[in-house]
Design brief:
Elements (H helix, E strand, L loop, with lengths): L1 H15 L47 E6 L9 E9 L9 E4 L18 H9 L2 E5 L15 H4 L4 H14 L18 E6 L1 H12 L6 E5 L6 E3 L5 H6 L2 H20 L2 H10 L8 H7 L2 H4 L13 H10 E2 L2 E2 L7 H21 L4 H5 L7 H4 L6 H13 E3 L17 H11 L14 H8 L9 E6 L24 E4 L9 H6 L1 H19 L16 H17 L4
Parallel strand pairs: 3-4, 3-5, 5-6, 6-11, 7-10, 11-12
Antiparallel strand pairs: 1-2, 2-4, 8-9
Helix pairs in contact: 2-19, 4-5, 7-12, 11-12, 15-16
Bound molecules: 2-acetamido-2-deoxy-beta-D-glucopyranose (5 copies).
């Protein structure tokens, strides 16, 4: 039964993605390019269609368009249409406007971040606020210019994205009663919410625009830009089954040794073991094995130990019905079991019918994914930020730390590819480095000190080592900048469902809601007359209902 349902789905998927890989989970654009730290997609049901004041709300996925400046340093260049979604289920006049961007993704299908399926909606529900999901420039259809060529990408910087949030908050006219009078601080407190890259953007924006947002909530926020981000694999190593990490480490150590000093026969035997005989470059072969670890990123408390990551560990650790002790089965079994996992299913899952060179090779500058400059290609847009500003290359650990990942893959491996993606952008430098120092200096990274910003992190988040909960981070939790850490994975605390299944996630969410309640309690709009709290008379109530109805009729939705 299950199989017969699944088959057409698989066919559909591989058709739509046939140009590149058969399977590109969690932001992976290619089998040897690190995934972006994308925010999990959460979609709302069509309802609720009624606000608490009884007004009819537009369908939850109604798309609105904001005229955003192409270039904040030169407004004369004009505007582009930036997409957003918005609802006001819980809104009362003067309540907070909760702004969220999913960051480096097409924002379609993120409507869950409008309702109480997410922390965003929970904040709105508690504080009588309205919610907005804004598509980030250069993702989905929100493009300053109609392609992703170098000429266009020059407007794709973190600072332009920060300026977008400022210009949006100060100029948007929301399709709700009083929605043309929601100026930050003048009329309403605005709260910025983000996860992962957009979590970092939340912090960076509050550093850069200290008087714009009254409060912020930053989940798994990768605030410190890091070029050699080998620390990505550290939370995985800490929390994956010990037998599995012991065996992965043994296999990788062996492969690195053979690939560095083994005979051609020994090298070919390793390649064949994984079905990768046709993959030319050894760093591509060893680097491709990172995919099994990247599968960790899509885990959540709600999925528990389901998922491809655990299928992988089971494949290594369960032998003839027996389970390995904490030290694993050792190199011989692990190497052949890992190989069998690849050749029997995983390689097909990853590459489908594509040959391994186009699926996992990184040395052909003519591959589509390097050359395609059409819009709505989040991989390309994100890689631009990676190559220029944040790095986050996910490589082998330094030699004094155990590694789950080949040391043949170092930042130069990824930096070389920046030239294939963006020929001419980096002059003659064969391995251009991202300017992480500039980002960490401009926006303060782990050292950021801003008022009323809540950090929500997860012990098991592979991005933890770039957040304020990283081992190397000097950040400490304070009442104006609290750091709540749960047993969650990546951005787990954004989801209400995760809070229901994991009490540590729930505790972080409750701590955040409490902080935000306190931070809003002493908020005073500068236009005080518009926010005189008073009881409405029955006449005023009736007039308000009429106003809402009139508004509904007149509302022009693009
Ligand atoms: C909203 O969702 C409905 C049902 O999923 C779909 O038919 C419709 O096209 C969507 N509208 C927009 C504007 O995305
Ligand atoms: C979430 O919102 C819905 C209405 O949209 C409401 O029925 C439900 O009770 C809310 N959930 C919680 C936990 O408050
Ligand atoms: C390797 O490439 C050759 C020639 O293109 C092809 O015939 C062969 O099937 C490939 N081997 C594998 C294991 O994919
Ligand atoms: C060994 O591996 C199995 C299968 O992945 C896992 O369920 C178990 O927790 C592991 N045990 C230890 C001690 O690591
Ligand atoms: C300030 O509040 C008054 C009274 O509600 C309103 O008429 C006016 O437009 C508001 N000014 C701004 C800048 O929102």
């Amino acid at each position: 039964m299950l199989t017969s349902i699944r088959t057409p789905l698989v066919v559909l998927l591989s058709l739509s993605l046939s140009v590149v890989n058969a399977r590109l989970p969690d932001g992976r654009v290619h089998g040897n390019i690190p995934p972006s730290p994308a925010v999990p997609k959460i979609t709302a049901d069509d309802g609720p269609l009624t606000s608490i004041s009884g007004a009819t709300l537009p369908p939850i996925n109604t798309t609105y368009y904001f005229d955003q400046l192409i270039d904040h340093t030169n407004p004369k260049l004009g505007t582009f249409k930036q997409r957003y979604w918005h609802t006001w289920e819980w809104y009362e006049e003067g309540g907070p406007i909760i702004l969220f961007t999913p960051g480096e993704a097409n924002a379609d299908g993120y409507t869950g971040y409008l309702v109480n399926r997410t922390i965003n909606g929970q904040i709105a529900q508690q504080q009588k606020g309205a919610t907005i999901v804004l598509e980030h420039r250069f993702y989905g259809t929100s493009n300053p210019l109609p392609d992703l060529s170098l000429k266009s990408l020059k407007y794709h910087t973190i600072q332009q994205a920060i300026d977008d949030l400022d210009y949006f908050a100060n100029n948007v006219k929301l399709a709700m009663p009083g929605g043309d009078k929601v100026k930050p601080n003048v009329n309403n407190p605005w709260i910025l919410v983000g996860g992962s890259y957009s979590g970092a953007l939340t912090g960076w924006t509050m550093v850069n625009k200290p008087d714009l947002f009254r409060a912020g909530y930053a989940s798994s926020a990768v605030v410190e830009a890091i070029t050699d981000f080998w620390g990505y694999f550290e939370p995985i190593r800490e929390f994956m089954p010990q037998n599995c990490s012991a065996d992965v480490e043994a296999v990788i150590t062996h492969i690195d040794q053979i690939f560095t000093s083994g005979s051609p026969a020994e090298i070919n035997a390793i390649k064949a073991n994984f079905g990768l005989s046709n993959l030319t470059h050894l760093d591509d072969v060893a680097g491709a094995l990172r995919n099994n670890l990247w599968d960790w990123q899509s885990l959540s408390p709600a999925t528990g130990v389901e998922g491809t990551f655990f299928q992988f560990c089971d494949a290594l650790e369960v032998k003839d019905g027996a389970v390995a002790s904490a030290s694993g089965w050792g190199l011989d079994h692990a190497l052949s079991a890992w190989g069998a996992f690849w050749t029997s299913s995983y390689l097909n899952l990853l590459c489908g019918k594509n040959d391994v060179e186009s699926c996992l090779g990184s040395y052909n500058p003519n591959e589509d994914y390097f050359t395609d400059t059409s819009i709505d290609n989040s991989g390309r847009s994100w890689t631009w930020i990676v190559c220029n500003e944040v790095g986050f290359y996910q490589e082998g650990a330094p030699t004094d730390v155990p590694t789950l990942v080949t040391r043949l893959v170092q930042p130069v491996y990824d930096e070389r590819q920046c030239n294939y993606w963006f020929p001419g952008a980096f002059g003659n430098n064969p391995t251009p480095q991202p300017n992480v120092n500039r980002i960490n200096t401009a926006y303060h990274g782990w050292n950021m000190k801003v008022d009323r910003l809540f950090f929500a992190n997860g012990h098991r988040d592979p991005w933890r080592e770039a957040t304020t909960s990283a081992n190397g981070s000097p950040a400490v939790s304070t009442s104006s900048e609290p750091i709540g850490i749960s047993d969650g994975f990546h951005c787990s605390d954004l989801s209400t469902t995760n809070g229901k299944v994991d009490s540590t996630v729930l505790a972080v969410q409750q701590q955040a809601l409490k902080s935000i309640q306190g931070w809003l309690a002493d908020f005073k709009p500068t236009n005080r007359s518009s926010h005189q709290p008073h009881r409405r008379s029955e006449d005023e109530e009736r007039e308000e209902k009429r106003r809402v109805l009139r508004f509904e009729r007149e509302r022009s939705v693009v």
